[in-house]
Amino acid sequence: xxxxxxxxxxxxxxxxxxxxxxxxxxxxxxxxxxxxxxxxxxxxxxxxxxxxxxxxxxxxxxxxxxxxxxxxxxxxxxxxxxxxxxxxxxxxxxxxxxxxxxxxxxxxxxxxxxxxxxxxxxxxxxxxxxxxxxxxxxxxxxxxxxxxxxxxxxxxxxxxxxxxxxxxxxxxxxxxxxxxxxxxxxxxxxxxxxxxxxxxxxxxxxxxxxxxxxxxxxxxxxxxxxxxxxxxxxxxxxxxxxxxxxxxxxxxxxxxxxxxxxxxxxxxxxxxxxxxxxxxxxxxxxxxxxxxxxxxxxxxxxxxxxxxxxxxxxxxxxxxxxxxxxxxxxxxxxxxxxxxxxxxxxxxxxxxxxxxxxxxxxxxxxxxxxxxxxxxxxxxxxxxxxxxxxxxxxxxxxxxx
Length: 401
Known about the structure:
about 400 residues; alpha+beta; five-stranded mixed sheet; two-stranded antiparallel ribbon; 7 strands
């Protein structure tokens, strides 16, 4: 009878512990889900807000560019420009409706947006009225004066207010996210306290669970080790995506990631080089020999120029050099000549001395010259091909337009 009573008490302890843990996990699930979806809603609202404001700003900038082109006499097809302008204003109105449909916007952001909206409306009216006679008669000087003194400043102010609105929305979002983070920490702390109490209850009421608990901890350690290995594997896979395995240099994808953000406002020196008639090496000695030759050239380039430029092996035997910010245009040309010298030097590969001339192109990049990295490389490769067509073994310069 006493043995049955003891067994009953033990069962009751397990039931109590199980119910307590179930409550803890249910509460934790509901609370975490609530915080997660709250953050999701904030992120979606912020994204929608940012997209609408950026759309307004972008369309306004396009309209202003057309106005400048008219005043400068660059664009003269008024029907096409009027049509484009009407379409862009329609896009601005759609973006305004989207922004105004969002309810979770602070009063400060609304005030700045309203101010920007009023300026845009005034800008449109002034642009519609801008020197009708001057446009008809082709008086670009008068149009330019009206644009600079009256209309263009409005676009600048409207753009600044839209940017300021974006800053306010970002700050408000950050505040909300911080509050949610604090709430998460509080909830996690509470859950931790409850979990500790649950563990104490389990330890007090069911010592026999110790072995199972140790086995569970061992499984958790094994899972952690597996997770660590998976993370290491993913990191290696990620590295392989942006590294040329043969030369150990960054590849074209890495170049795109590294300088895309600099194209709009950056100013830097960049160059590309490759060997003239490299195919002859592969045809004569085989691809393995060509790979060894490329690896030797790459190693020498890293040794000589890694302190003055970031070096990329963007295709086969083509190397791209993005020079450090402190390198001037004249210095870049001098370094480029040294690069040509190093690449054109003889290399001993598998007991054979190999030497090929090389050609290259140097580009003094200015802000906004190219829309993307691909167009940048097209300019450089075109200049380099021209050098090769003129006999090779020379460096050409990309002309800024």
